């Protein structure tokens, strides 16, 4: 089953972090200059019908892959090749980080080539510069220079006309650092740093992760958030209740700290705790800590299953000399554990193979059942109940007597 857009998308805009070595590296927003902060909607409409989607990387059937769609704004027809290169750059930034790297074949990547009358976007390089573009993207959204927004009506139109896209990214033809989370994730295509926004914002959308930085002082009247990477509980409380990232407590995070409960997160300096001193959800460009990576992987498997299909189908009775093949997604860096069994007895020659020739197997007389089990044994997941339910898939065939 596909992920629901309603369940996937954060409805609040998230201003991008600044890339900096300091924790919660949120640079102070510049004060907005005087004047109208909401640019007028320009005349360039979205084309109807929209152009055909262009495949960038297709890794499997749409219903069982996470479909990412990149659209551009402020690219003229002559600049569409540049837009394609900017898409590749954003995708490369995602797949450079774990767990996107290992699970990159769980995604289909598409682009939508939208040509704008003008090159560049509104309020770039300064407030008041107006550009006629199809998405009306603009800086100084809500009075914050680096907050880069798509016009609301254009965003809604994209979602309505492209309902099968799980995540939509809008790339501005700009060198100015900026971006935003929300129903359509935005990023500047030509800024040397802002491609790091893409994996961070995608983690909000796909993994339902919270930001791990503070900035608003002490939180009051706190309640336990749904996000898997922030909590109101101490490490001792998590361990006692077996809550949130209790399985990872004491493990060494990629930043060198121990997984614990560190004060600060969910935009507050205290009142909420995060798993590690630093991570991608705190500082752009950093690796994800283990609880965040595990949450991402689990959400990948809410859409993708370890077996895509089989030949023959499970409804077909097998002859005793049949050859059976299963199709699985691809993993990068490790493979699934695959094993076969007849009447529950493991077949050694089938271990690790996606094809089994029954003519090489001793099949008992009478009623017999062939089983194929595919399991992701990655140590990046410690929730064995989830592994058993979603990261393991079993196919079964009846063998003719």
Present the secondary structure layout.
Elements: H1 5-8, E1 54-57, E2 66-73, H2 80-95, E3 107-112, H3 152-161, E4 167-172, E5 179-180, E6 184-188, H4 197-207, H5 235-241, E7 262-265, E8 268-274, H6 290-300, E9 309-311, E10 323-327, E11 337-342, E12 345-347, E13 355-357, E14 368-375, H7 384-390, E15 392-399
Parallel strand pairs: 2-3, 2-4, 4-6
Antiparallel strand pairs: 1-3, 5-6, 7-8, 9-10, 10-13, 11-12, 11-14, 14-15
How many β-strand runs?
15
Give the low-pLDDT segments.
1-13, 18-32
Which strand order spans the largest sheet, edge to edge or round the barrel?
Answer: 1-3-2-4-6-5
Order of helices and strands: HEEHEHEEEHHEEHEEEEEEHE
What's the quaternary structure here?
single chain
CATH superfamily of the largest domain: Collagenase (Catalytic Domain)
Mean pLDDT: 89
Instruction: Report the major sheet.
Output: 6 strands, mixed
Give the helix level as a range of percent: 10-25%
Strand content: 15-25%
Distance between the termini: 35 Å
Described by the principal axes of the CA atoms, the overall outline is flat
Number of domains: 2
Short description:
By secondary structure, the protein is an alpha+beta fold.
């Amino acid at each position: 089953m596909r992920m629901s857009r309603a369940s996937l998308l954060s409805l609040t805009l998230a201003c991008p972090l600044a890339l900096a070595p300091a924790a919660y590296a949120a640079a102070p927003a510049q004060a907005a200059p005087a004047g109208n902060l909401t640019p007028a909607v320009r005349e360039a409409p979205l084309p109807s019908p929209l152009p055909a989607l262009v495949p960038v990387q297709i890794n499997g059937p749409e219903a069982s892959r996470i479909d990412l769609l990149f659209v551009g704004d402020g690219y003229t027809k002559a600049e569409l090749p540049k837009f394609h290169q900017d898409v590749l750059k954003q995708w490369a930034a995602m797949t450079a980080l774990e767990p996107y790297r290992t699970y990159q074949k769980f995604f289909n990547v598409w682009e939508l080539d939208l040509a704008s009358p003008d090159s560049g976007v509104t309020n770039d390089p300064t407030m008041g510069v107006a550009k006629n573009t199809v998405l009306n993207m603009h800086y100084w959204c809500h009075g914050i220079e680096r907050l880069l927004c798509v016009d609301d009506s254009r965003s809604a139109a994209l979602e309505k006309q492209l309902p099968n896209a799980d995540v939509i990214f809008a790339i501005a033809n700009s060198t100015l650092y900026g971006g935003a989370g929300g129903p359509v994730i935005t990023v500047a295509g030509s800024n040397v740093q802002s491609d790091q926004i893409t994996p961070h914002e995608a983690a909000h959308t796909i993994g339902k992760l919270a930001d791990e930085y503070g900035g608003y002082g002490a939180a009051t009247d706190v309640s336990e958030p749904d996000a898997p990477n922030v909590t109101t509980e101490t490490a001792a409380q998590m361990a006692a209740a077996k809550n949130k990232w209790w399985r990872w407590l004491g493990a060494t995070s990629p930043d060198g700290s121990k997984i614990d409960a560190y004060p600060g997160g969910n935009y507050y300096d205290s009142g909420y705790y995060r798993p590690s001193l630093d991570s991608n959800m705190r500082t752009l460009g950093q690796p994800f800590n283990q609880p965040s990576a595990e949450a991402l992987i689990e959400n990948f498997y809410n859409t993708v299953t370890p077996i895509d299909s089989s030949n023959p189908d499970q409804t077909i009775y097998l002859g005793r000399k049949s050859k059976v093949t299963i199709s699985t997604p691809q993993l990068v860096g490790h493979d699934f554990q695959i094993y076969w069994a007849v009447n529950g007895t493991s077949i050694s020659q089938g271990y690790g193979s996606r094809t089994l020739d029954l003519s090489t197997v001793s099949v008992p007389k009478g009623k017999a059942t062939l089983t194929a089990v595919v399991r992701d044994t990655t140590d990046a997941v410690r929730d064995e109940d989830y592994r058993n339910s979603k990261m393991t898939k079993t196919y079964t065939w009846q063998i003719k007597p």
